Amino acid sequence: MSVESLINIIQRHNPEAATDFDFLKTCYSYAENAHRKQLRKSGEPYFMHCVRTAEILAQLRLDMDTICAGLMHDVLEDTGITRLELEKQFGKSIAHLVEGVTKIGRYKFSGGQRQRQAETYRKLLLATAEDLRVILIKLADRLHNMGTLDHLSDEQQLRIAKETLEIYAPIAHRLGIWSIMSRLEDLALKYILPDTYREIADLLNEKLEERQAYCKKMEAIIHTELKKHGIPANVRGRTKHIYSIYQKMYEKGTPFKDICDLVGLRVLVDDDWSCYSALGVLHLRWNYLPDRVRDWIGQPKKNGYQSLHTTILDDGKPIEIQIRSRGMHQVAENGIAAHWSYKEGVPTTKEALSIYANYKEMLDDIQDTQDVPDRFIESMKLELFQDEVYVFTPKGDIHALPVGSTAIDFAYRIHTEIGHTCYGAEVNNVLTPIREPLQNGDRIRILTHPKSTPSRSWLRIVKTANARTKIRNWFKEKDRVDALELGKKLLKAELQVSYLNANDYLKSPKLLEIAKQLGHASVEELCIRIGNAHESATQIVNRLKPEKTEVIPKKQKPKDVEPTIHLDNGIDLGMFRVMKCCNPIPGDDIVGYLTRGRGVSIHRNGCVRLLDEPERFVVVNMHAVEGTNYPAQIFVECDDKPGMLGEITTAIARCQVNIREGNFKSSTVTRINDTAADYFTLDVTGVEQLKKVMDAIKSINGVESVVRKM
Ligand code: MN
Q1: What percent of the chain has pLDDT over 70?
Q2: Which of 615, 570, 561, 569 is nearest to 592 (CA)?
Q3: Average pLDDT in the 267-281 region?
Q4: 613 C-alpha to ligand 1 centroid (Å)
């Protein structure tokens, strides 16, 4: 095994290849050295695998960069070499190719998965390989690995073979690389269904000699016939590959003896015209089956395949014949790879451009750059499937999501409950905000907590309709539960105000009767209506009251009534909101306002934001919680002279009150004659303490006024 044998292969397949192979030699020794100490499972040096991969690429007649990248395709994965070192020594292009192959190697397709997942996986591979040559190297790598599977465990063999059949062979097929596709399929079948593979191979062997002899005879006859008409041609027998026979037998149910194209012949001629001339010669000399004639030259297949097919009858025996030029043959065997220019590393021929057009459905975003070779490869980059990202669960299951999707979308895709309780995500083992858009290939672990719940802001972030609907439904249900709870509380409070026993009345048949009279199916429904302020608790209680009750306490002055709802810090925050507009603190004259569907908001009596709808007012009482401070804003007007601010802050400090925020403006700013205006936000325990501080400030010489902001 030496670099010379590799050079030999390159020259044999590509007579016009460069004569200077120094660069190749450098790459060769570099990779050989990098893998020096490694052995494969078979016991042979690891580097052998790299050389074989490069050989396959050379047989495809690919450019020097691709072959060199093939030699080095495993150095990033298996040795200590970094991408940067590779780039420094061999340039960006090669480093890029090797890195691409390494990345693809990280995705593992666990077998036995559904067809849809396999398709998603193929898309992922195509989408993440920015340069088609990455895929070609990966295919060569896989082909050699498939040939050396024997040394792995049964389980690994099966997994890799399935991955090959479901992912890599179809990719080779779409790229038109028949020579690799057929070998991948046969090797995969050998490991997935060893008995079936054997059976077909034996059937093929049974009459092998007979078939070969017949082939030889026909080759000679056709060759002579064409020569007689001035058409130089190369006529060869060909056999179907085992997997395609397997498909006919087991998927289409054709018995082996009825597969008529077991033997076929291929006629290679010099140019396109000769194909049609040759067809004419055959059709004049033999009977043929008219409905089996195909012209793939006039109308090439999507993957670029061109040929004429006909089935002639020799003594009533059908033989399929394919006629094509040598150029077409290259394409038929090597697909897209047939169009690479060895020198420039890009497809340049006219056929390449037409193939390129045929790849439209795979290659998104075609720019009008086809006459410029290096821009051309630029657009050969597989920017397809741009509207989706492909991400993984920790187990390796793949999911396609719209671009811009977040971990929240992913969580809901996995399971509704996981979505509802997710609070964080690990993306590629790094803790990441759940709002961040996901990238191709991300592996995501969703962190959940049973007490965690969705946030309304998620509705603006998520990209999938699925997540959005589920979040909406969750809030719908939550609002219902909240309204129910609130309605019950309000009803209870109202009953207490009327000196009625809440527990007795809530379960009384009379309440149900009232609910039904008002058109609600149950007391629960009625409570929800009260919670949403669609029914008035006061009116319900009035209807509930026994006629004879005479003592009805007046309700005008809520303060005289026993506190019915305790608004303690941290309690019921979901249902009670202390409003920022007036910042009520313990001791303030406050009013609860029953909003439509958003609980009770607490205002100071007289707040301008408080709507004048007394029927919606509810009795609330705010208790100071020991050790808690509440923000209160005051406004101080004073003389604009040095030391003023110091005196004020000292006075505040003496009352043991903390200044949370301050904003000071001198007369030059306020434009009021020699008057400064200072705002403070103070942390106080309640109204009592606030009053003390304000009095202390008022007593300072030079202070004109101290008022609390409404
Ligand atoms: Mn490899």
Answers
A1: 83
A2: 615
A3: 94
A4: 77
At residue 126, the pLDDT reads: 67
Separation between Cα atoms, residue 70 and residue 27, nearest integer Å:
10
Question: How far does the centroid of ligand 1 lie from the alpha carbon of residue 73, in Å?
Answer: 6
Residue 65: other Cβ atoms inside 10 A:
20
- Looking up tokens 């075609």, which residue turns up? 366
Continuous H helices in 107-131:
115-128
**Catalytic hit among 78, 87, 270, 479:** 78
Q: How far is CA 138 from the centre of its chain?
A: 23
Identify whether 78 is a catalytic site residue.
Answer: yes
Count Cβ neighbours within 10 Å for each residue of 660-690 and write b for 16 or more, e otherwise: eeeeeeeeeeeeeeebbbbebbbebbbbebb
pLDDT of residue 471: 93
Which of 479, 590, 494, 474 has its CA nearest to residue 535? 494
User: Using an 8 Å Cβ cutoff, are 624 and 587 in contact?
Assistant: yes
CB neighbours of 358 closer than 8 A, spacing ≥ 6?
Answer: 300, 301, 302, 303, 304
Q: Give the model's pLDDT for residue 362.
A: 45
Mean pLDDT of the chain: 81
As separate numbers, helices (DSSP H) first and strands (DSSP E) second, the chain gives 30, 19
pLDDT band at 407 (very low <50, low <70, confident <90, very high): very high
Query: How far apart, in whole angstroms, are the C-alpha atoms of residue 265 and residue 282?
Result: 12
Q: 4, 77, 206, 513: which is the annotated catalytic residue?
A: 77
Give CB contacts under 8 A, 24+ apart, made by 520-526: 524/484, 526/487
Residues with CB under 5 A from ligand 1 (ion): 74, 141
- Beta-strand relationship, 308-314 and 287-288: antiparallel
Output the CA 38–ligand 1 centroid distance in Å.
13
**Catalytic residue at 674?**
no
Q: Ligand 1 centroid to 100 CA: how many Å?
A: 12
**Cβ(710)–Cβ(604) below 8 Å:** yes
Q: Determine the 3-state secondary structure of 440 from DSSP.
A: coil
89 CA from centroid of ligand 1 (Å)? 21
Q: Looking at the DSSP assignment, which residues form a beta bridge with residue 475? A: none
Q: DSSP for 13-62, please give it.
A: H-TTS-S--HHHHHHHHHHHHHTTT-B-TTSSBTHHHHHHHHHHHHHTT-
- DSSP for 226-292, written as a single string: HHHTT--EEEEEEE--HHHHHIIIIIS---GGG-GGGEEEEEEESSHHHHHHHHHHHHHHSEE-GGG
Cα gap 422→457, rounded to integer Å:
14
Checking if the pLDDT of 128 tops 90, the result is: no
CA of 144 to the centre of ligand 1 (A): 8
> How far, in Å, from the CA of 58 to the mean position of ligand 1?
16
Ligand 1 centroid to residue 445 C-alpha, Å: 29
Computed from CA positions of residues 131, 132, 136, 142, in that sequence, does the dihedral angle turn out positive or negative? positive
User: How many Å apart are CA 619 and CA 602, to the nearest integer?
Assistant: 10
User: How is residue 27 written in tokens?
Assistant: 């790459």
CB hemisphere CA count around 101 (13 angstroms): 30
List, edge to edge, every strand of the sheet that includes 430-432: 430-432, 422-427, 444-448
Q: Are 75 and 84 in contact (CB under 8 A)?
A: no
Kindly report, residue by residue over 104-120, the tens digit of the pLDDT: 877 777 655 566 667 67
Give the C-alpha separation, 681 to 664, whole Å. Answer: 12
CA of 49 to the centre of ligand 1 (A): 7
